[in-house]
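Notes to self, Nicotinate phosphoribosyltransferase:
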Amino acid sequence: MSRDLSLGAFRNTSLSLFTDLYELTMAQAYWQAGVTAQACFSLFVRRLPTDRGYLLFSGLEDMLDALSGMRFSDDDIVFLRSLGLFDEDFLDYLRCLRFGGCVRALREASIFFANEPVLEVTAPVIEAQIVETLLLNQFNVQTMLATKAARW
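result:
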């Protein structure tokens, strides 16, 4: 009997799974070690594209919505369990996990430059670890589109 374990097989997957497997395995390692310290990360662009003198910050509302709605659905847990990488107790922890950190950011549509922090997240290390990829992707796509639109 074969089972379809692709993410598409689960109807109620959440944005919480929009993370790297590495982030989840690191989160489990922190959880197993009892690490609960606060972590802080800043999101910034190292260098601008060669044809750009600036970028336009975009996507803040979607990023904040994703953080406030962070939940691992039952389907998310089933998918993670199917990987055979996670302890049941850790999966129970994820089922109850909610983002409780804080975010500081530039205002939407602000112009920014290379190496300028545009968003800073402070949260318990597990939460910060899990949301990093989601925030990076939201930021990258929306900032790229807004910057291109502004230059049109």
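- DSSP finds five helices and five strands in the chain.
- The helical segments are 21-33, 60-68, 74-82, 88-96, 125-151.
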